[in-house]
Structure formats: structure tokens, C-alpha cells
Amino acid sequence: MFLYSFSCLTVLLILLIVFSQESKAQLSPGYYSTTCPNVAGIIKFVLVEAMQSAPQARIGPALLRLHFHDCFVRGCDGSLLLDDSPSIQSEKDAISNAQSARGFKVVDNMKAAVERSCPGVVSCADILAIAAEAAVSMGGGPSWNVQLGRRDRRIANATKANMRIPRGSDSLPVIISKFAVFGLTITDVVALSGAHTFGRGRCLIIRDRLYNFRGTGKPDPTLSLVRLKALRQTCSVNGAFANLDPITPNRFDNQYYTGLQNNKGLFSSDQQLFSRNMASSVALVNRFSNNQTAFFLNFVKSMIKMGNIMPLTGNMGEIRQNCRRVNQ
Ligand code: HEM
Fold it and tell me: CATH number for the 39-165 domain, one of 3.40.50.300, 1.10.490.10, 3.30.70.1060, 1.10.520.10?
């Protein structure tokens, strides 16, 4: 009898522990409502300041991309923000981030401003998620309630960053499989690629598309002649950048998809979304090009899904004091 009650109690205890861990694993928009109610306002203020002081720096697109690159290594855990140290090999040096990922100084300013109001409460991972939403909505795109409550990881993983972050030259099946690792579908791939509605890319990355596509000695045949000519001109200067969306390069809207319908995608990864042998992604490109509301709704859904990738919650990780290094 005693043994029976004891084992029942043990099972109950295990269930309780599992349940409490699972409920802790839930992110929620109101996570900081009592501990740091104005966190989003503080972050937006720093973002506006940064946009005003350097309008050419495209800080909005840079921050949106940081959140993506953070989530796609081992979940949205702020690992991307860690600098090199004796125990950390920074993800900032990974192929897709080196000389490319930007906005770290602005994230530092956001963290410092948040720490002044609510010390030790808000994670760097959540700052990236809030900043991404602010960048999209201020760019003319949709706004949404950001899910919060992530904690920061105490390690980085440059090797996984190299393996998992998609590259502009990846084939669509490779990109789809890189998204599938995190439970993201083809709809998520097409909707999230819509982030390329603003911002720019380095010409260096598309040289082969302009002059020697896959060693053929010719440009990429899927690139429109008009865009090819314009890109060759823009990219004739060393160190130049080209707009991801040639139609409305600074605005978050659905024109990126219209560009794809007209063979104007900047990267081969963009243009492949409209390639004849991928009927499902072509249908999505057509839908988002015809209907901005449908794009915005899907983009928000996919951003929330991406933001939910393997967050650290409960007692895992920490709330970093400085986003560039782990707490002592
Ligand atoms: C689908 C696979 C994707 C690939 C292959 C890809 C690749 C790239 C590349 C190569 C660049 C230019 C980097 C440089 O010039 O150094 C870029 C820029 C950018 N990406 Fe992506 N990306 C993808 C998905 C995403 C997603 C999901 C987001 C966000 C949700 C995103 C947001 C951005 C933004 C905003 C920029 C412009 C950044 C700036 O102006 O500084 N990308 N991407």
C-alpha cells in the first residue's frame, strides 16, 4: 500500500515537473508586462534614433536579418551576438555573417537603454525579436504582438551557423531543407523570403550571376535583361551594393514578389522561388504579388513561428548583461 502511494506520488511529481517545464517553455506577448512594461517603446526609440542619425545605413533591414540569423543556428537565443573570446568562437565570423551581418552597435544601445530602465530582466534574444518587428512595421510592413520570454545561451556555435544559415547561392531544395530542420514549411520559406522587400546585398555575391553563371561564361538566364544591365552598372564599382527589391527598395511591401514574376530577384535563391519546376512556390509568389494583405498575414505567421524556434526558457541560459559576452 505504502509502495503503491509512493509510486503514485512519484509519477505525479514527474508529471508536475514536466508540465511546469512545458508551461515555462511557452513564450507570451505579455512576458514583461510587470517587469519591463515599456521594453518595446525603449527599443523603438533607439531604432528611430539610429534611423535618423544614419538614414543610409538601412538599420531596419539589418536588424530583421540578425533575428533570422540568430534563430537559424540553435534557436532564437542571442548566440549570434556573442563576440569571440577564449571560450567562444563567434557566429559573427561564419560565412553568412562575416562582413555582412550588421547592426550590433545599435543592439548594444538597445540593451543599454533597456538595462537602464529594467536591469537584468530582458534577454538579448528578445531584444532582437522586438527590434525585428519594429523594423518591419516602421518600414511600412505589418505589426504584430511579439512573443517574449526567451533567455540567452551561454555559448555560440560557428560551425552550425555555417551549416544552417541559407546562402544566396543555395538551391531551392537546399533552402527548403534548411527551413525544414526547424519545422518551417515551403509557405514559410516564400513568406519569410519576402523580407528581401527591403535592404541590399553585396554585389560581390552576385558576380557569377552577372558574368559567369555556374561556369558557363554567361549571365544567369533567369535574370531579366533589364535587371542584368542595371546590376552590371550598379556593381561596376568595387564594394558596391544592390537593392534586393528593385521596385520599392526601402519599403516593406509586396513588390519583391512582383519583381520575381519579372525575373528581377537579386539572388538566385530569390529567383528560384519563381522557377517553373516549383509549382507550389510559384503559386505562393503569385498570391503574395496579387494580394499584399495575404503576404502580410503569412509573413507575421511565419515570423512568429521562426521566433518560436527552440527558445531557452525557465532556468535555462541567462539574461545577459552585455549582449556581446556571457555573464561572469
Ligand atoms: C530564404 C533564404 C535566404 C537566403 C538565401 C538569404 C540570403 C541573403 C543574402 C545573401 C543577403 C545579402 C548579404 C550581404 O550582402 O552580405 C541577404 C540580405 C538580407 N536578408 Fe536574407 N536570405 C534568406 C532569408 C531571409 C529571411 C528569412 C530574412 C528575415 C526574415 C532575411 C532578411 C534579409 C534582409 C532584411 C537583408 C538585407 C540586409 C541589409 O540591407 O543589410 N533573409 N539575405
Answer: 1.10.520.10
